[in-house]
Amino acid sequence: MSVEHPNSFWRATANSGRQFSVLDSDRSTETLIVGGGFTGLSTARELSSRGRECLVLEAHDIGWGASGRNGGFAVPRFKMNYSALALKYGHEVAHALYLQALEAVDSVAETVESYKIDCSFQRNGHLTPAHNHTALAGLQADVDWLRSRASDSTARIMGPDETFEALGTTVYQGAYLDPRGACLHPFNYTRGLAHGLEARGVPILTNSPVVSLHRDGDRWVARTPAGAVRAKSVVLATNAYTQPLLPKDDLSRRVVPVASSIITTRPLSSHERKKTLPCELPVTDTRRLVSYFRILPTGQLMFGGRGDITGRRDDPAVYRTLERQLALTYPHLKGIEIEERWAGMVAVTLDSFPHIGKLDDNVFYALGYGGRGVALSSLMGRRLAALVSGERIRPGPMGDDNFTTVPFHAWRRTGMRIMARYYQIRDRFER
């Protein structure tokens, strides 16, 4: 049964396009991809470029999940600073992760170009402002590490005055600027890629949830309410919407689904535009409960962060914390009319890394982006295609080693609410 897309700015400004088909009979393919979001479509894109047969099953419509609801930021860094990664894993591993982060954003840019996707793609840079002096010192350590260990002097630190001139707010102590960051219209990107793949012969079947997966000889059989797909290999690309499909499948208990909420203001006046994010770059700050924002092509300010942990309520009251944070960041916008409010689920892991691996014989997965999925999912799609093709990969900390279940997973929502409140208090007192 079709589930309507949630209201959002992306949905309201989406390109027109024909609908995708539904699985209504039994099919067979070499590789079945379960999930038609960033990860699944990126995997199909890479397999298609290798000349390998694949088929995508999406439980709802393309762009229904977080891939069509997120902020649209492609950030060339992980949540943890490179300097901190070097201390934890060593310089060699940190350098490999740095190269993969750049490859991830490059992959998105290359996909947009190759498939001629109309998604307002811009690669003018990304800002990471520091909410306190400790965070700024960490960003400075990042710049120093990149210069000394990666011979990369592209990213730089902006001081308080330059940060104020760029962001139009005094709440930050400085900022890390990487001109290789990008942003896009995620709904148009997702659907544009799906249509492009379909035009190249990849079946994209929607409103076809996989309800069971079992082995039948040398093939896997995935059943939906209206049919089944037989495949040699299976890729699970369902991220925060992952449900157990195999008898000993604990994948869904290795991540915690958390709602990331977004609001958009009415279009800003020319006076307001001069005072609000003058640089017009996408911004993701260093708070534990991250704030991220950007100016949209319509002149509206998009502001995202944590709302209701479960993401299940449409009540505007859920977004009041977000609106208060907007007012703290830009006091001149306090009480401004909010035109859209929406949320999407992200999958959080214990180590803040996405993970890729093998769940069973010829059953592979990638998930756990924690809000960094626009770019990293494109990277994971490449890696999943390599695994399906029988190649070895070196994911480092993003592999399945030590990717264990979350303790007390059944009480995850209560725990997340407690931690969210704790982080909120710490963020407030560390300003």
UniProtKB/TrEMBL annotation:
One of the Pfam families matching this protein, by short name: DAO
Lineage: superkingdom: Bacteria
GO cellular component terms attached to this protein's record: cytoplasm
UniProt keyword annotation of Oxidoreductase present: yes
UniProt keyword Oxidoreductase, yes or no: yes
Swiss-Prot/TrEMBL keywords: Oxidoreductase
The name this protein goes by in its record: Glycine/D-amino acid oxidase-like deaminating enzyme
Source organism: Aurantimonas endophytica
Lineage, highest ranks first: Bacteria, Pseudomonadati, Pseudomonadota, Alphaproteobacteria, Hyphomicrobiales
